[in-house]
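Good day; I would like, with your permission, to put a structural problem before you. A protein sequence and the structure tokens that stand for its backbone fold form the material at issue. Thank you for your consideration; the sequence and its tokens are set out here:
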Amino acid sequence: MKPILAELLTIGDEILYGQIVDTNSQWMSVELDKVGIKVIRKTSVGDVESEILSAFAEAEQRADIILITGGLGPTSDDLTKPLLAKYFNCELKLHEEALQELSAYFKSRGRELSETNKQQAFLPVCCTKITNPVGTAPGMWFERNGKIFMSMPGVPHEMKKMMTERVIPKLKEKFKTPTIVHKVIRTVGIGESFLADKITAWEKSLPTHIKLAYLPSLGEVKLRLTGFGDDEQKLKAEVEGLTAKIQPLAGEYIYGYGDEPLEAAIGKLLREKKLTISMAESCTGGYLSHLITSVPGSSEYFLGSMVPYDYQIKMRQLGVRPEVLEQYGAVSEPTIIEMANIVRAKFNTDIGVATSGIAGPGGATPEKPVGLVWIAYSDKHHTVTRKLQLSTERLVNIKAASIAVLNLIRTSLPK
């Protein structure tokens, strides 16, 4: 089946200046994927007539569906509507139904419809009006040579309502779309290239209608299998079968599937095993605790944490022996072992974990450079430590160290 291709255009100088973040395209991509429409390009265009017209023409050459957001306001800098009229060679004319809806909208809010706002009821005569149920700017649907142009407001909640209730149903009527099935396999503790080496033979055996994408992020790599076909159930079964085959190759690094983040997977393990945990965070400054407590229900297993950032706090409040700090320093294996063991005892938890390192950019020595981090896991059976050499970027080091601790918990829990 021929894929149905879409291109997304966001219009407005404010996007190019970075004054607002384009969240519309990301949301639209997800919704289109659900109905089997493949987004092939996203383009942001400023408020310049020639550039907008060029973007229309280029998108029409590439895609079956062109979805446009922004530039539908009533002021002179809102160019989308007049330029769509120009592009499709038709005049703007007062649309009586749009005027009635606009008048009712303002009346319901106790306001008069101004002449400026009335301009939003003028639409290209060659378009089909799409009602905006939560705003003032109607959407505009154009058809030409089997291609669809759909213009929507840039305000996210207005666009989402129109897209969900009006646009997607019309697109499903217009196009016969293929089934698209995704399966995300989440891994941690292995780099992208090393993971690729482990699964080379498996990847080469994938059928042509199932594609693999590597999605690396800080400390993790997600593998996304995407299958295309006509029979959804058959495709899902095929993808699940391929997922099972990767287990013997990379199972030790796989912590979950789909949208579940690492902190949620760790929480599930702790809940299943009925274990509690506490933390002593130095270089991570509470970020690790933030990840753990971002999971609903984390109070079942997370009892609390300390952030003993200073030497004196490590000694007085946490209880690390002065001689250990004096001999080995705060960023050392002996210190991190004490921190994990002591916090476990202080909070009376099954597990204690700890972090200590040089997040940077200052504080380094030749023996202990920026990015050096020690982490530890402690339970009644054993204590496990890891030495990390991370980056020169402070926030990267904080986040990467926290992910490394979560993975250390995953691999160190009693079986």
In short: The mean pLDDT is 95. The chain has 16 helices and 17 strands. The longest helix spans residues 156-174. The first strand starts at residue 4 and ends at 11.
